[in-house]
Design a protein that fits this description.
The structure holds 2 protein chains of 2 kinds. By secondary structure, chain A is of the alpha/beta class. Chain A is 37% helix and 15% strand. Among the domains of chain A are: 142 residues, Flavocytochrome C3, Chain A, domain 1 (Alpha-Beta Complex); 43 residues, no CATH class. In chain A, the strands form 5 sheets. Chain A has a 5-stranded parallel sheet with strand order 7-3-2-11-18, with helices on both faces. A 4-stranded mixed sheet of chain A has the order 1-10-9-8, with helices on both faces. In chain A, strand 2, helix 1 and strand 3 form a beta-alpha-beta unit. In chain A, helix 1 runs parallel beside helix 4 and helix 13 runs antiparallel to helix 14. Chain B has 2 domains: 101 residues, Beta-grasp domain (Ubiquitin-like (UB roll)); 146 residues, Alpha-helical ferredoxin (Fumarate Reductase Iron-sulfur Protein, Chain B, domain 2), CATH 1.10.1060.10. The longest helix of chain B is centred in the C-terminal third of the chain and has 14 residues. In chain B, helix 7 crosses helix 9. The radius of gyration of chain B is 21 Å and the shape is elongated. A 5-stranded mixed sheet of chain B has the order 2-1-5-3-4. Chain B has 10 helices and 7 strands. At the A-B interface, helix 3, helix 4, helix 10, helix 13 and helix 15 of A face helix 1, helix 2 and helix 3 of B.
């Protein structure tokens, strides 16, 4: 029998970034004993790296903004593949979630009248992102972290124990979700420091583990982003949707090699920065797709005027959604118009006074100066696409964030559906808050209902999980896990990257199958105490599973949409919008074959009143004939955007 | 451009350990953390090191490089002489767990001892109004990435285990200052005097403004000048602090 450290809680939250902490706070506020599992130290999660801001239609800078406009932008950004209900809840609830942070001590940048300032961002019609310079993620995580501490102080006053109702397990990693029959019964994992195993028994588990970027070579993601929650969900019997949609952020650093992929915030463009190729040309004007043509400036002059006068000018194309900008940069570089280090120029130095750049973009100024010897107030940056975000994730109920496995919830990047095929900048931090809260709330309610009949943890499952986790110590002539990881990253980067081709993805699947066989023999040296080689060997299982999901779904989807571009199927197909590709674990994986099975599911039809927020002409670009709203006789054949806007103002709930 | 460097890395655990030499390749533009990762990937897969973002934003990879407390991800190899050995040791103030990883629990314990933000009564969410110039000061302190290099460097606790129970350290005294300067913090209304607690409960009096904390801050926060000295000045109204008096005489502070 395996010796483990055992705990019992009502709700276990796996992940301590924005979504996890927000979920934990909600569960605790509903009186549930809550455990937070943190893969690294408390307060270091990937959320800390978010730069630009939190999208919420508070209308502080432009009072035309409201949830309907935010909803429309989100659906457009995701090319209408988004789950409409998630996009609706997100747009409606984001302002409350931001305001609430202020009551917990957050200090956002201010407008002149003392409200929360909001900045422009790609794909957002109005200035919408609440921000703190370019370190918004740090403010978010610190605020949530400090809120957790304040709840612990409350418990200390009442119970004499800081951890009476909410406890953070720092540097603990979950390797298995445990089940009692169909239901979740807890989690199993290891403590980094000692290498010892632990089990937390709990009826409700919230996955909030973030993304998968570490499967790619060039990424803005931190070491923790190994797809743990995605894999845990698959292994527990849940399904993942939209895994083919991976966001390549258009602007990552490209030089020096050791920092390749580190994010350069979209705020640089939101605040006036422009993209130029090696000919000095602002090339984005050449890349405005038809679906967005009416919304974007045709000349540099108009684009520049927009920063001052948004009512009478259209936005510059540098602020197109991220997928468009990333593809454009990719094309320019391929056409030989790239910079010496294979990127394009992003220049803010000729657009804003040096002092203003230092004030608005302090982290970027610091980052380039320290890491690349570039002074962004005096010279352009070199940037190129970097793997940034996965739109795909656990298929959840939009209102409750629950997966198809009873007791298993998911929120934040690990959940799928909210962003469709492409996420808008700023919609991630708001997503974390809105659905983190919902997951915590519904997990607490579920745990309450399960009090009478708590699921039990079976020893057999603990033993099996322990055996799996210890395997790397007994691997014969073990392969170096670092080497395997590098091969995986190279394969995904080369074969399932920003532009995809059928043959390459087939090759990727073959390579992944081989890597999975080899990963079984990943061996480690030394002992269990804080052993990074061992941790990586265990993470490889997760990265290989999610990589297969990405490759398999990408091969299946024969169209180009958002974060999925097929060179052999370059256009967007309305029929494909109705299809979601769902990945689940194969019953009996055959060695050398895939571990994942793919299933086509119907994308739920968008509610009629929400469709009414768009003009029919626009809807025709995305929907099939029979999906267009109502009978033609009921609606005027062409509904201008302005009419829709009037309607949305009248119907505003916030 | 590549060259071969000698890295001398402390390896061991709570029981003890020693410096171990590695010959390792260094490439153009790399930072110390890149080289440590190369050692991990090619020579010592179980070398324990904390890191997350590798972009100076999370504050995980704190260590002492040639004796100087720094973030490994923000220390470029080009700033170190190529022909000299690079020595990396764990932060000295905290107990070693393994190799370069230390037990930083002290900091999380201190964080809990600082009373949290107290929201103003009767101001609803969405109704908070603050001017930018009034939030600037606290915002500077909220840039803190909690790398704990200031805590590690502060001589009050660096070689004085006995001071740890009574002293919150610069990071958490700065947290007191941050809340004290927050335009809407309602501590005073609820009977909490943050300035007094800094002195009486969090050991502000131990600080003798040598500015070591400010010097090592990777975020460039002026911890001493902007947080600790103002806190001392406020506290001094209540309690005589000879160091503030001395500081004012020898020109360590302005105005």
């Amino acid at each position: 029998m395996t010796e483990v450290e055992r705990h019992g809680f009502d709700v276990v939250v796996v992940g301590a970034g924005g979504a996890g902490l927000r979920a934990a706070i909600e569960a605790r506020e509903h009186g549930k004993r809550t455990a937070i599992i943190c893969k690294s130290l408390f307060g270091k999660a990937h959320t800390v790296m978010a730069e630009g801001g939190i999208a919420a239609s508070m209308g502080n800078v432009n009072d035309q903004d409201n949830w309907q406009v935010h909803f429309r932008d989100t659906m457009r950004g995701g090319k209408f593949l988004n789950h409409w209900r998630m996009a609706e809840l997100h747009a409606k609830e984001a302002p409350e979630r931001v305001w609430e942070l202020e009551t917990w001590g957050a200090l956002f940048d201010r407008t002149k009248d003392g409200k929360i300032s909001q900045r422009n961002f790609g794909g957002h019609e109005y200035p919408r992102l609440a921000h703190v310079g370019d370190r918004t993620g740090l403010e978010l995580i610190r605020t949530l972290q400090q809120k957790v501490v304040s709840l612990q102080q409350e418990d200390f006053r009442e119970h004499g124990d800081y951890e009476a109702r909410i406890k953070v397990f720092q540097e603990y990693t979950v390797t298995r979700v445990l089940k009692d029959g169909d239901r979740v019964s807890g989690v199993f994992g290891y403590q980094r420091e000692s290498g010892r195993f632990f089990v937390i028994e709990a009826p409700a588990v919230v996955l909030a583990t973030g993304g998968i970027g570490k499967s790619f070579k060039v990424t803005s993601n931190s070491w923790e982003y190994t797809g743990d929650g995605h894999a845990l969900a698959l292994l527990a019997g849940a399904s993942l949707i939209n895994m083919e949609f991976v966001q390549f952020h258009p602007t990552g650093m490209v030089w020096p090699p050791s920092v390749k992929g580190i994010l350069v915030t979209e705020s640089v463009r939101g605040d006036g920065g422009v993209l130029r190729n090696s000919d000095g040309k602002r090339f984005m004007f050449e890349y405005i797709p038809d679906v967005f043509r009416e919304k974007y400036a045709e000349t540099e002059e108009e684009g520049d005027r927009w920063y001052q006068d948004q009512a009478n000018n259209r936005r510059p194309p540098e602020l197109l959604p991220r997928d468009e900008v990333a593809r454009a940069i990719n094309s320019e570089v391929k056409a030989g118009r790239g910079t010496p280090h294979g990127g394009v120029f992003l220049d803010v130095s000729t657009r804003l006074p040096a002092e203003e750049i230092r004030r608005r973009l302090p982290s970027m100024h610091h980052q380039f100066k320290e890491l690349a010897d570039v002074d962004i107030t005096a010279e352009p940056m070199e940037v190129g696409p970097t793997c940034h975000y996965v739109m795909g994730g656990v298929e959840v109920d939009p209102d409750t964030a629950s997966s198809c496995v009873p007791g298993l919830f998911a929120a934040g990047e690990v959940a799928g559906g909210m962003h469709g095929s492409n996420r808008l900048g700023g919609n991630s931090l708001s997503d974390l808050l809105v659905f983190g809260r919902r997951a915590g709330l519904h997990a607490a309610q579920y745990a309450e209902a399960a009090q009478e009949d708590r699921p039990l943890v079976e020893q057999e499952q603990i033993d099996a999980a322990a055996e799996e986790a210890l395997a790397p110590f007994s691997a014969e002539g073990g392969e170096n896990p670092y080497g395997l990881h590098q091969e995986l990253q190279q394969s995904m980067n080369d074969l399932v990257g920003i532009i995809r081709r059928e043959g390459e993805m087939e090759e990727a699947l073959q390579r992944l199958a081989v890597l999975r066989e080899r990963a079984v023999n990943a061996g480690v040296e030394g002992h269990r105490q804080f052993n990074p080689g061992w941790h990586l060997a265990l993470d490889l299982r997760n990265m290989l599973l999610v990589s297969e999901c990405v490759a398999r779904a990408a091969l299946e989807r024969e169209e180009s949409r958002g974060g999925h571009t097929r060179e052999d199927h370059p256009t967007m197909a309305a029929e494909w919008r109705r299809v979601l590709l769902a990945c689940s674990l194969a019953d009996k994986p055959v060695p050398g074959e895939g571990a994942i099975v793919l299933q086509r599911k119907a994308n739920p039809a968008i509610r009629e009143d929400l469709l009414g927020l768009f003009g029919v002409d626009e809807l025709k670009k995305y929907l099939t004939e029979d999906e267009l709203p109502g009978a033609e006789a009921d609606l005027p054949p062409q509904r201008a955007d302005t009419d829709a806007e009037k309607k949305s103002e009248n119907g505003a709930e916030h | 451009m590549s060259y071969e460097a000698t890295f001398r890395v402390w390896r061991g655990d709570a029981e003890g350990g020693e410096l171990t030499d590695f010959q390792v390749e260094v490439n153009d533009g790399e930072v110390v953390l890149d080289v440590v990762h190369r050692i991990q990937a090619t020579q010592a897969p179980d070398l324990a090191v904390r890191w997350n973002c590798k972009a100076g934003k999370c504050g995980s990879c704190s260590a002492e490089i040639n004796g100087r407390p720094r973030l490994m991800c923000m220390t470029r190899m080009s700033t170190l002489p190529p022909d000299e050995t690079v020595t990396i040791t764990p932060m000295r103030t905290f107990p070693v767990l393994r190799d370069l990883v230390t037990d930083v629990g002290f900091n999380y314990q201190k964080a809990r001892e600082i009373p949290s933000f107290i929201p103003p009564q009767g101001v609803k969410p969405g109704e908070y109004r603050m001017q930018q110039e009034d939030v600037n000061r606290s915002q500077e302190f909220r840039k803190c990435i909690e790398c704990f290099l200031c805590q590690n460097t502060c001589h009050v606790v660096r070689d004085h285990e006995e001071n740890k129970p009574a002293f919150a350290g610069p990071r958490f005294l700065m947290r007191v200052a941050e809340l004290d300067m927050h335009p809407l913090d309602a501590a005073a209304d609820s009977g909490l005097d943050r300035k007094a607690t800094a002195q009486e409960e969090h050991g502000l009096g131990y600080c003798n403004i040598t500015k070591c904390c400010t010097e090592v801050c990777p975020e460039g926060i002026k911890i001493t000048d902007n947080a600790l000295i103002p806190l001392k000045e406020r506290a001094v109204d209540r309690k005589y602090d000879p160091l503030v008096w001395l500081g004012s005489k020898i020109g360590l502070r302005r105005g």
